[in-house]
Amino acid sequence: MRRALALAKRGRTSPNPMVGAVIVKDGQIVGEGYHRKAGEAHAEIIALEKAGDLARDAVLYVTLEPCCHYGRTPPCTKAVIASGIKEVVAAMVDPNPKVGGNGLAELEAAGIKTSVGPLGDEARKLNEAYIKFITTGLPFVTLKVAMTLDGKIATRTGDSKWISCEKSRQAVHRLRERSDAILTGIGTVLADDPELTARIGGKVSYPTRVIMDSRARTPVSAKVIKQPEGQTIIAVTDDAPDANIRKLEQAGARIIRVDKAGKQASLPAVLQELGKMKLTSVLIEGGGEIAASALSAGVVDKVMAFIAPKIIGGQSAKTAVEGSGISVMADAITLKDVSVRKVECDLLVEGYPCSQDS
Questions:
Q1: What is the pLDDT of residues 18-56, one digit of tens each?
Q2: In angstroms, rounded to a whole number, what is the distance separating the alpha carbons of residues 60 and 75?
Q3: What is the separation, in whole angstroms, between the first and last Cα of the chain?
Q4: Beta 264-265 vs 260-261: how paired, if at all?
Q5: pLDDT over 70 at 356, yes or no
Q6: Which of 165, 187, 228, 237 has the fewest CB atoms nearer than 10 Å to its CB?
Q7: How far apart, in whole angstroms, are the C-alpha atoms of residue 104 and residue 106?
């Protein structure tokens, strides 16, 4: 199962889950595969093709319950049954309502022994974005921040290059590459003119770019507009002048109109629209205001904080989370399932915000 999980990580399958499969017979791996891309062959099918006749009376280890419904590809359960596999071990049940245990039940009915559970926690973490999307219709939201030891994201003059080390920045680009969309605020666009691309080993990829821009102030010359691939979505409210909207649309941007939350575009409303577009994972990057808005709106599923061993100081230097803040410590947002690891000289703290009633 550990091998199957390692294979699954290679896939870029959104809005489908990442799945790996390994077929074992007489203690030897005779076939393996992973789901590479949505619409292409599933992991089980690839593993069965590689195993051939050796699949008969073998054990299939798969990171997610085999599907039993027709989508872009036929159901995997049919192929598993036809192959002569004698046992299927799944890390987790598929939360998709179209499956939800029915795949395993179909295999059992055909005389194949099934079991669920080995490395289930790892499998669920691997597909946390898929699980959120398939059960709620909303994207999984990760808030990423890079800050100094004293919580600053820039000096009092606004200089922020670079807070984190090179390896941390590389890790962020890998995170971008795995995300369907990168979301930031108009303040970051106007101040930094970011590209919002993923650059890994000389190769550039282009996640969807989402700008929270109530009044449509994004310049048509901005790098987020000028990228050669991927789409740029500008979230505006009724405060946006029609002339600004027309210019952005003519420049190739996609405009979505949402209600206001206070004076800004409603972040929950934007995420609902992104979910309708089948964007399953959203990475929030930007300044302290967008971070504060996301946290106060309760839309953040995961926090990734890169902390550099630097001290800036200064009352006017921006912090990782701005906004009005809380008044009593009991109201502080607490993270659970926290992990800490070293990235060169930086620390990466990951955790999941507790719900208000937990």
A1: 999 999 999 999 999 999 998 899 999 999 999 999 999
A2: 16
A3: 32
A4: antiparallel
A5: no
A6: 228
A7: 5
Q: Are strands 264-265 and 113-116 parallel, antiparallel or unpaired?
A: unpaired
Q: What is the pLDDT of residues 95-153, one digit of tens each?
A: 999 888 999 999 999 999 999 989 999 999 999 999 999 999 999 999 999 999 999 99
The reported pLDDT for the residue numbered 158 is 87
Beta strands of the chain (E only): which ranges? 20-25, 28-34, 59-62, 87-90, 113-116, 140-148, 181-185, 198-200, 203-205, 208-212, 232-236, 254-257, 260-261, 264-265, 281-284, 302-308, 335-343, 346-353
Give, in order, the Cα–Cα distances in Å from 178 to each of 68, 312, 319: 27, 31, 27
Query: Peptide bond before 162: cis, by omega within 30 degrees of 0?
Result: yes
Residue 333 class from Cβ within 10 Å (0-12 exposed, 13-18 middle, 19+ buried)? middle
CA dist 181 and 115 (Å) reads 35
User: What tokens were used for 124?
Assistant: 């669920």
List, as one string, the DSSP characters of 25-82: ETTEEEEEEE--BTTS--HHHHHHHHHGGGGTT-EEEESS----S-SSS--HHHHHHH
pLDDT for position 69: 76
In the chain, the amino acid numbered 285 is E
Cα 83 to chain centroid distance, Å, stands at 34
Are 325 and 289 spatial neighbours (Cβ–Cβ below 8 Å)? no
Q: Where are the alpha helices (DSSP H) in 71-222?
A: 76-83, 102-109, 120-126, 128-136, 166-177, 186-192
pLDDT value of residue 36: 95
What is d(CA 56, CA 208) in angstroms, rounded to the nearest whole number? 44
The helix-helix angle for 43-51 and 76-83 (nearest 10°) equals: 20
What pLDDT does residue 73 have? 73
Catalytic site residue 44?
yes
The residues facing 142 across adjacent strands are: 283, 302
Pairing mode of beta strands 281-284, 254-257: unpaired
Q: Which of 32, 44, 65, 289 is catalytic?
A: 44
Write the burial class of residue 195 (CB in 10 Å: 0-12 exposed, 13-18 middle, 19+ buried).
middle
